[in-house]
């Protein structure tokens, strides 16, 4: 009887917390909306401040996913997207940015540094803050060791490539338009947002993972909250292989995830709210392929990249 009473009280507290957060979220959103209405056209100090407010609001939603119902999470996500869309419209057209190697001799194995990013007419839009890796095709790229950073990491337009960013510790990751590729991340203090990931493999340690409009891909996760998918199919999930990080326990401690339980197998599908299991994702039963991963060596011919893709990406 006591246990039943405790459970009822706990459930009531969770529902109350969710309701209070929803009301508070609406007030925060209204404050951001008012700030947006006062921003002049183009990139301005006011707009930079609003983007910071939206980032804080997004983090609050991430922290609240432990008790927010799926419907509320989706509504918050949609409203945040609307705010970001308004920022994009106010900001207008911006310069384009992409990765380009500084070496005069072309190579399929490239060490990435922030200073090697250059303006390009064909790359994705450069965010106001953060590190950007974009427009990489048919290469194996290994990031150089960088200081621990709370900046966001933006990765986009990666095709038939291997991208090793394990040495970078970021505040959050935005991964978009990835096709037939492998992307390895270092520990992330916040969340990873994935969009349009096709027939690829992603390995990451993070607090939250959201995946949109992705297909035939596998995610190796160590994640503090339930992964969320939307408009996805044929998505596989498995546990992150600790051997991918030099000191796995220390890496978790660095980003505040040392005591968390890995929730990689508690996937929630926003397009499948029935009691039956969603047909859009599955758990990978096979032994973790990354147990055999070795650090990437130089690859002048592209043969290494092709062999890695054959071994570590989903084959459909």
UniProtKB/TrEMBL annotation:
Domain of life of the organism in this record?
Answer: Eukaryota
- The reply to whether Translocase figures as a keyword in the UniProt entry is no
Q: Which Gene3D superfamilies match?
A: 2.160.20.70, Tubulin Binding Cofactor C, N-terminal domain (1.20.58.1250)
Single GO MF descriptor: tubulin binding
Q: Name one GO biological process term.
A: tubulin complex assembly
Q: Which UniProt keywords apply?
A: Acetylation, Cytoplasm
Q: Which residues, by range, are in coiled-coil regions?
A: none
Which is a Gene Ontology cellular component entry for this protein? cytoplasm
Where does it live in the cell? Cytoplasm
Carries keyword Acetylation?
yes
Q: Which residues form the C-CAP/cofactor C-like domain?
A: 103-272
Where does this protein chiefly localize? cytoplasm
Q: Which family does it belong to?
A: Belongs to the TBCC family.
Its quaternary organisation is: Supercomplex made of cofactors A to E. Cofactors A and D function by capturing and stabilizing tubulin in a quasi-native conformation. Cofactor E binds to the cofactor D-tubulin complex; interaction with cofactor C then causes the release of tubulin polypeptides that are committed to the native state.
Protein name per its UniProtKB record: C-CAP/cofactor C-like domain-containing protein
């Amino acid at each position: 009887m006591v246990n039943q009473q405790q459970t009822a009280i706990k459930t009531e507290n969770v529902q109350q917390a969710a309701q209070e957060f929803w009301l508070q979220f609406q007030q925060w959103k209204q404050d951001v909306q008012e700030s947006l209405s006062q921003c002049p056209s183009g990139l301005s100090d006011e707009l930079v401040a609003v983007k910071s407010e939206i980032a804080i609001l997004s983090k609050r939603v991430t922290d609240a996913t432990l008790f927010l119902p799926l419907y509320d999470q989706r509504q918050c996500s949609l409203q945040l997207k609307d705010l970001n869309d308004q920022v994009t419209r106010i900001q207008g057209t911006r310069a384009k940015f992409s990765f380009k190697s500084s070496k005069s001799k072309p190579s399929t194995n490239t060490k990435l540094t922030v200073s090697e990013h250059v303006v390009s007419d064909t790359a994705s839009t450069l965010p106001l803050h953060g590190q950007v890796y974009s427009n990489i095709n048919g290469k194996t790229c290994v990031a150089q060791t960088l200081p621990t950073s709370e900046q966001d990491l933006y990765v986009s337009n990666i095709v038939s490539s291997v991208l090793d960013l394990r040495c970078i510790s970021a505040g959050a990751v935005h991964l978009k338009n990835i096709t037939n590729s492998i992307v390895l991340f270092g520990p992330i203090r916040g969340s990873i947002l994935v969009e349009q990931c096709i027939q690829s493999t992603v390995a990451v340690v993070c607090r939250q993972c959201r995946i949109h409009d992705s297909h035939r891909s596998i995610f190796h996760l160590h994640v503090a909250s339930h992964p969320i998918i939307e408009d996805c199919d044929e998505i596989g999930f498995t546990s992150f292989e600790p051997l991918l990080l030099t000191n796995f326990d220390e890496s978790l401690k660095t980003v505040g995830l040392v005591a968390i339980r890995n929730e990689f197998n508690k996937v929630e599908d926003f397009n499948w709210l029935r009691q039956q299991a969603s047909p859009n994702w599955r758990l990978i039963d096979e032994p973790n392929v990354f147990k055999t991963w070795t650090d990437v060596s130089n690859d002048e011919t592209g043969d290494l990249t092709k062999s890695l893709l054959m071994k570590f990406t989903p084959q459909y």
